[in-house]
Design a protein that fits this description.
Layout lengths: L1 H10 L1 H17 L3 H17 L4 H7 E8 L9 E2 L2 H14 L4 E10 L2 E11 L13 E12 L5 E8 L1 H7 L10
Parallel strand pairs: 1-6
Antiparallel strand pairs: 1-2, 3-4, 4-5, 5-6
Helix pairs in contact: 3-4
Length: 178
């Protein structure tokens, strides 16, 4: 009986090895949910933010999208509408028509992706009621996106140094006397 198994194994060794390699490669190639979510975020910056493609952003945001940002002006710190956020994004791109963000690093856990970007742009359009300054900015943004079960961005938390941002534009004046 043992001799039969040995003979079978010896005759079919190449097929057994091939099967093990095939199964291992298929299982090893499937992306984790975290890897898929990181890919979604990379595409949002490549195809949406940096391409200034509002239609793409519209397609990737959940209908009930929410954005939290204490760094934003009053009234914009909690955006609870995809449509309002898209208007905000359009205004930002009018203020900084060359806006670009480069992802420096990214980590994912479960349905959340956290990352640091360096945003750059030149202010050639109005910021709210403020006239354009013509000055360039470089600002770090810490962002967390929550990706829903439909692979849409459902929620965002974003922080940046607003003092540095406004200082670079010449719009922040310290009240500290020299």
């Amino acid at each position: 009986m043992k001799k039969g198994y040995y003979t079978f194994f010896k005759k079919n060794l190449i097929w057994i090895v091939f099967g093990v390699i095939l199964i291992s490669s298929v299982l090893g190639c499937s992306k984790t949910k975290e890897e898929q979510n990181k890919q979604i975020v990379n595409e949002v910056y490549e195809k949406g933010i940096n391409a200034h493609n509002i239609a793409y952003l519209d397609s990737i945001l959940a209908d009930n999208y929410t954005r939290h940002s204490q760094s934003s002006p009053p009234g914009m710190q909690e955006i609870k509408s995809k449509e309002i956020f898209l208007k905000f994004a359009k205004m930002h791109l009018k203020s900084f028509p060359d806006w670009n963000e480069k992802i420096k690093f990214m980590v994912a856990e479960g349905d959340k992706v956290a990352f640091l970007t360096i945003g750059t742009g030149t202010n050639t359009g109005k910021i709210g009621e403020l006239p354009p300054t013509g000055k360039s900015v470089t600002v770090q943004n810490l962002t967390v996106h929550r990706i829903d079960e439909n692979n849409h961005i459902a929620e965002t938390w974003i922080l940046w140094d607003n003092v540095a941002f406004l200082s670079q534009l010449g719009l922040y004046v310290s009240s500290k006397k020299k």
